[in-house]
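Pasting as-is:
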Amino acid sequence: MSEYGKSIRMAYRPELVILIVEDHMLFTKDVKHALPEHTVFFARSVEEAKALYGKHLPDITFLDIDLPDGDGFEFLDFIRKEEPDAFVVMLTGSKIQSDFAISQQKGARGYVIKPFTKSKIEKYISEYLEFRKKQIELSLKQTEAHRNEQFVVLSHDNIVK
């Protein structure tokens, strides 16, 4: 992901961009109604999800495992390759322990078993907001350290000359 994309994501905005990758429309409508204050995009396949991900740079991606043209793990790999710190939550009907373990291994930040509740979705939104806050704080500390380092170097260069 470009630095521009990272700065967009870290900018303060109360409305989040959420991508939901799910092939069953019933669940997508339920999720959309649970998140009226956010911008929500839907994809029904891995290919559609890849296009929407690149276009909208979602803050959070809720991802089903079983999709018509592949599986969610494939798309999770794609996301993590593009953006290692991406915030992805599996949203699935699978109660299989190995699916849960693979999700964790591949870097998913959560696992919601359908049918979901609004409180479970809100929990992950809260976790994302805390995650973003920590990223912003880290970025500010790194910027300050870099500025201090440059100041010392410039000051030292001026003394030597």
